[in-house]
Design brief:
The protein has eight helices and 15 strands. The longest helix has 17 residues, at 290-306. It has 307 residues and is of the alpha+beta class. The protein has one domain (3-306).
Length: 307
């Protein structure tokens, strides 16, 4: 019986606010906070580790101790042709609400937040799919061309504003941006949630006390990672030789020791990291989506062997 008023409230919001799209309602708002997230830290993107990996910008997530920074990282997309729409915070109704990111054929609305490296606030200028190969725009992406060979240069996507807007949320007091028609179309497409690798990446960050804004005052010591489970990078995006691959959890239980042991193996065998990443993604993929995922995995492994 308690669920009935909630349903009526949601139906009322949809009926009185026609601007709310189907995709926004479907994706949902999972977390709210009473204070604004800190500004985005300034960092340099680490180079792309493998052909076919895509950049997912860092962001402020929210936990019991407040906001904590989830480092930007290169990840494997769940399917050929899929792009990442970043998460964002939006202020409305007196609270800051979290809009989770998703994978889709096109990039949707992410609050107008300028995450950089192709995510200038609207759309994506960091590259494009051509068949089963992703082409990187080296005008805005950090790509090692000895490893990644599908590249091009398009400087028209560069935002030449003299003032860099580091605001991390949409709404009053933040960024005043609304979805464009093409953003609305992208938001109504079929989406895939964050992969298990991305979820694990966020959870590991939540166990690292130094990633919390209450500790680092908005300047996380580890702002980026070049891939899941690898050595971290410092705020400038350079490899930090003093950083370990494990987080500093609040409770050093057996599960955390197991994760740290896996990460030490990954450090010595980067291709094994790719296999672990694939296995984690496969565990959350529905059965009907596994065949294209397996095809994509064979394609990536073939590229790694040739390299």
């Amino acid at each position: 019986m308690k669920k009935i008023p909630i349903v009526f409230i949601c139906m009322g919001l949809i009926s009185f606010n026609p601007k709310i799209s189907f995709a926004q309602v479907r994706v949902g708002i999972t977390i709210t906070a009473n204070i604004a997230p800190p500004p985005l830290p300034v960092y340099t993107q680490p180079p792309c580790p493998y052909d076919g990996y895509l950049w997912t910008p860092g962001y402020w997530a929210y936990g019991d101790m407040g906001y904590y920074w989830v480092p930007g990282v290169w990840v494997r997309p769940p399917h050929f042709g899929y792009l990442w729409t970043p998460s964002y915070w939006g202020f409305a109704g007196g609270v800051y609400s979290w809009h989770p990111g998703y994978w889709g054929r096109h990039v949707g609305f992410y609050g107008g937040v300028n995450y950089g490296y192709g995510y200038s606030g609207f759309g994506f200028g960091g590259g494009m799919w051509r068949g089963n190969a992703f082409r990187y725009n080296t005008a805005v992406m950090n790509v090692n061309t000895t490893v990644v060979h599908n590249t091009y240069i398009d400087r028209t996507v560069i935002n030449n504003n003299t003032v860099i807007n580091r605001t991390s949320f949409n709404g009053r007091g933040g960024i005043d941006a609304r979805p464009r028609p093409e953003d609305e179309v992208a938001m109504r497409e079929n989406h895939i949630q964050a992969t298990s690798v991305q979820i694990s990446h966020e959870r590991r960050s939540s166990r690292n006390r130094n990633q919390f804004a209450s500790v680092n005052h908005g300047q996380p010591s580890h702002a980026t990672m070049n891939r899941f489970g690898s050595n971290r990078s410092n705020p400038q995006g350079m490899r930090n030789s003093n950083a370990t691959t494990s987080t500093q959890p609040y409770n050093n239980n057996q599960q955390n020791r197991t994760i740290n042991h896996q990460n030490r193996n990954i450090k010595n065998h980067p291709r094994e990291e790719s296999r672990l990443e694939l296995r984690q993604q496969m565990r959350i993929q529905p059965q009907e989506r596994r065949q294209p995922q397996q095809q994509y995995a064979r394609h990536i492994r073939g590229k790694e062997k040739r390299e």
